Structure formats: structure tokens, C-alpha cells
Amino acid sequence: MENKTPQKRFIRLPEVLTRTGYGRTTIYRKMEDGSFPRSVKLGGPLEDPNVFDSRAVAWIEDEVDQWIESRIEERDSV
Asked: I want to staple 61 with a disulfide (CB 3.0 to 4.6 A). Which of 4, 9, 32, 66 is the partner?
């Protein structure tokens, strides 16, 4: 029997805002204080500083989904 790991998928900020109900500033504040998953730079490290630098970021869908589930579990355990 094969073990299939779930495929990772990136979601961009508008999707994160829709899923969480938070605003942009709140997402970034929560990332900074460690209470929300960190974003991933899509541009990657630059080997040549003269090359275009993509500032695009995204979140790993599964991490955001787990964060949402943990909020629900936290609510239900009270």
C-alpha cells in the first residue's frame, strides 16, 4: 500500500483573508507574534542582485487550514 502525502498548495493573501475573516494588518501582526502560520517568499533567494526580485508571498494551504481547525477546537473545548 502506498503512502500518499497530501499535496502542498500555496494560497495568496486574498484567500487567507477570506478564509480567516481577518484583515491584512492582523494577519501580519499574528505572524510576527507567532500565532499565525508564516508566509513563504515565492521569489526565493537571489543569486544575482541585478535580477528582478519578486516580492510575492503565499501561505501553505494546509497550515492555514490547521490554524482554522485549532481555533474551532479551542472554542469547543471551553
From this structure: 9
The whole model's pTM is what? Answer: 0.79
Cα 65-54-51 angle, rounded to 5 deg: 150
Close Cβ partners of 64 (under 8 Å, ≥ 6 residues apart): 11, 16, 19, 20, 37
Sign of CA pseudo-dihedral 40, 43, 45, 49 = negative
DSSP-based three-state secondary structure for 7: coil
The mean pLDDT of 25-29, rounded to a whole number, is 98
Q: Is the distance from CB of 13 to CB of 27 less than 8 angstroms?
A: yes
